[in-house]
Amino acid sequence: MTVAGPPNVELAGLTLVGPVLTAAGCGGTGRELAAYGPLDRLGAFVTRSISLNARPGGALPRIVETPSGLVHATGLPNPGIDQFLATELPWLLQEGARVIVSIVGSSLGEYAELARRLGRAPGVSAIEVNLSSPDAMGSGFFDVREPFHAAGAVSAVQRDLPRGVPVLAKLRPDVLRVVETARTVLDAGAAAVVVGNALPAALPDGRPAGLSGPAVRPLSLRCVTEVRGALPDAQIVGAGGISTTDDARSFLAAGAVAVQIGTALLHDPTSAARIAAELAVDAAHDQERISS
Amino acid sequence: MTTAPVVQAAGRLAPLHVRGELLAARRVGAYHHLTLAAPGIPARFRPGTFVALSVGETHLARRAFWIHQVKPMGGYGATIQIVVAPVGVGTRWLADLGVGATLEVTGPLGRPFALPKEPVSCVLIGEEYAAAPLFPLAERLRERGCRVSMVVAGRDEAHLLSTLEAKRSARSVTVVTRDGSIGHKGEVADVVADVLRREEAAVVYGVGTVPSLHAVAAAAEEHGAWSQTAIEQPLTCATGLCHGCAVPVVGEDGAPRLARACADGPVFRGDRVRWNEVAT
């Protein structure tokens, strides 16, 4: 009997070793996560959102616990694109990770500039445009409230990227708007949509923040279902509170081609590796069934 | 002072995420001392590192505890001991756990205390339960021939870790309580300068509240000693992933930046922390 290797997943024209990705902002620089499992076993490592200039991040407390969730306003701390390309990206590539760079900008011009610099960097598999920072206004980011804003950012990135580097658009899990937004960004050239991100929320002291974790999972799953129903050809990456392999299976069953693991990594840094390994067993069984 | 007398222990091993088991729980004063089987973690322990525990499925943030002791326990090999102050929902949950309960343990995490190259005089200052990592530190320092003195401080006697154990670990022990129930009445800040002078300290280690650590770092600077301060911050992931636990520091290049308490710390050089800006 021959044992099937890990079945590949096709996402946005990329061939990935499996459907499990990290979610932006939950895998550190990659080095911290690599202590708990090799990054090359994941479909891709999605970086924290990188901006044109370095950002120190916001005031403390940045993250507080709520039942089955985390409320967070980190202010997207990151070293800026040049430092990221010089120090973090080479290490990730050396580890064999497929790297999807999440980017966030304060203007369309910044998105374009980020795309230009990333387009020149070897080894970037794809770009994920963060169109759903839950406190975009508070943090000074380009505010994406209407679908045409989202399309504008995707176009700005798309225009300045070389062919062959796909753009993923990460959308807010807003059930009422997600289909319209997904359609618009796909029309603007996004190769896939990531549904969804943190929901807009507030910290106990009233500061704008995002809510993530299992508390938002049913909402995200509904969003994936809606987008799949309305846009049968769309490639969807499901995200939002996925903590177990069964959670991942339900997103895949709802029509996602891949999933992102975020908050779960903060609770258990081995969760993405474990879910990836368990889904690989599922897929190997499926292959056996097909070939027998 | 031209050369640093402290060296960072090289070759830190990667932390592990394991299923642990509560082997013993003992109440001492205001605290619960928990002994955990956590396979692989004891062998990687260095003083100043900590473990992160999960407290149930719906509480997503990890709870961080100093590793207080590593010792063998019949049938389990090496175990770790932590000190829990039951003050919040997670710590009360842990304090109520029955022996035999299993829980997810990640560690050892963080940058440990740096140790001196030479057998110099060291003063170890710990407040309340946070004095926990100083006991194994004292042991390592004595192995290197260092002269070890300790200051244990707290609001009252119930909030001190064993002064008896401190006396076994150190040449001299200064006890400070806010209510004066035992030892000197007052705060760490009231005694630190005198102790450093008396002990002719070359290196000062501190762990406790931010105001006390600030006082320790300032007194060390004044005295011409090196300080190693271990900062406690509420952590979310405790593993360096979430960037939730920012500590304002001065980088080696002299530029201000934000470090992570969990992954870049918890131990920082006292003269590198911008104490007035640390969240308390």
Number of helices of chain A: 10
Average pLDDT taken over every residue of chain A: 93
Weakly predicted, low-confidence segments of chain B: none
Fourth-tier CATH superfamily name of chain A:
Aldolase class I
Number of helices of chain B: 6
Radius of gyration over C-alpha positions of chain B, nearest whole angstrom = 18 Å
Structure notes:
The complex is a heterodimer of chains A (about 290) and B (about 280). Chain A has about 290 residues and is of the alpha/beta class. Chain A has helices spanning about 30-35, 80-95, 110-120, 135-140, 145-160, 180-185, 215-230, 245-255, 265, 270-290, and strands spanning about 10, 15, 20, 45, 65, 70, 100-105, 125-130, 165-170, 190-195, 200, 210, 235-240, 260. In chain A, helix 3 runs parallel beside helix 5 (about 145-160). Chain B has about 280 residues and is α/β, with parallel strands linked by helices. Chain B folds into two domains: about 15-110, Elongation Factor Tu (Ef-tu), domain 3, CATH 2.40.30; about 110-275, 3-Layer(aba) Sandwich (Rossmann fold), CATH 3.40.50. Chain B has helices at about 40-45, 90-95, 135-145, 165-170, 190-200, 210-225, and strands spanning about 5, 15-30, 30-35, 50-55, 65, 70-75, 75-85, 100-110, 115, 120-125, 145-155, 170-175, 185, 205-210, 225-230, 245-250, 255-260, 265-270. In chain B, the strands form four sheets. A seven-stranded antiparallel sheet of chain B has the order 5-4-8-2-3-7-6. The radius of gyration of chain B is 18 Å and the shape is globular. The chains are: A alpha/beta (about 290), B alpha/beta (about 280).
Describe what is shown at a glance:
The complex is a heterodimer of chains A (292) and B (280). Chain A is an alpha/beta fold and 292 residues long.
